[in-house]
Amino acid sequence: MTTNNSAPNLAEFSLVTREWFNEHGRDLPWRHDGFGAWGILVSEIMLQQTPVARVIPRLEQWLDRWPTPAALAADSPGEAVRAWERLGYPRRALNLHAAATAITKNHDGTVPEDVQSLLALPGIGDYTARAVAAFAYGHRHPVVDTNVRRVIARAVAGQGEAGPPSTRRDLAAMELLLPEDPVAAQLTNAAVMELGAIVCTAKRPLCDECPVRELCQWRARGYPPFEGKRQAVQKRFEGSDRQVRGLILAELRASDVPVTAGEIAQVWPDAEQRERALAGLLADGLAVQNKSDFELP
User: Fold this and answer.
1) Is 44 an active-site residue?
2) Are residues 19 and 51 in the same domain?
3) Which of 9, 25, 35, 5 has the alpha carbon at shortest distance from 191?
4) pTM score, two decimals?
5) Can you give the CATH number for the domain in which 249 is found?
6) Which residues, 6+ apart, have CB-to-CB distance to 51 below 8 Å?
7) CATH code: domain of residue 69
8) In whole angstroms, what is the distance from residue 45 CA to residue 199 CA?
9) Which pLDDT tens digit goes with each residue over 191-218?
10) For a tag on the chain, would you pick the N or C end, based on fewer CB atoms within 10 A?
11) Which of 19, 23, 44, 263 is catalytic?
12) H helices of 36-106, where?
């Protein structure tokens, strides 16, 4: 995702995108004033690989139950996994619990605001750390997700796709779009992300509705097909170990008492795959074994 000499005026690109976002950005809970750093941290982790529509109700329930990091840390990791339900990638629930415990122990229950302290929290990666620092605390940091990478690749670099991610290169590309003013920079991060989410989408970009269509290098070049290296395609979910793991976890979540090996055997007919999935859950700390029974941690 590199820029070139025919790139658009980046200051104009940033301004137009912010103006569009102010008028057309979705009304999402984490964008409300006073939502709080803990809520933003939870929302960012929930939003990883999960659609917004599925996150909103679960986020509200989560924050009603655990309005602070200390409240979550005081509960068990298993309850976090149970409350995660069908958001997918349940390891994120354990990461949130571990992060809440570290915040409570090391930061007096307040989500830290600098990127390095956020990165030191269990399960918090570069994207989440920068997102919390920028959106919760207003610090000037480039924030790059899949949507941002797609917008920059198309509008700035004139490519139909962004290709494989590169943290250094992607952050540098987004940095060029950020105004010096921290408030405008925060808004630019959100605006470019939103543009990729609802207009410059992967499969059916709404180019006629795009606010930066006159600045878009991909459009100016006649939408050339992407010829670079592509990201690996994720394996289909149906019949995968991920599906079996999810079925076993659903069985554990639904029970208030330990689940027997015989009950787990009923969730999937392929014994080898079922045992592999169960072993993975045990290794990841998403399930624990007591003799021949299994339960949430």
Assistant:
1) yes
2) no
3) 25
4) 0.85
5) 1.10.10
6) none
7) 1.10.340.30
8) 23
9) 999 999 999 999 999 999 999 999 999 9
10) C
11) 44
12) 37-46, 52-65, 69-73, 77-84, 91-106
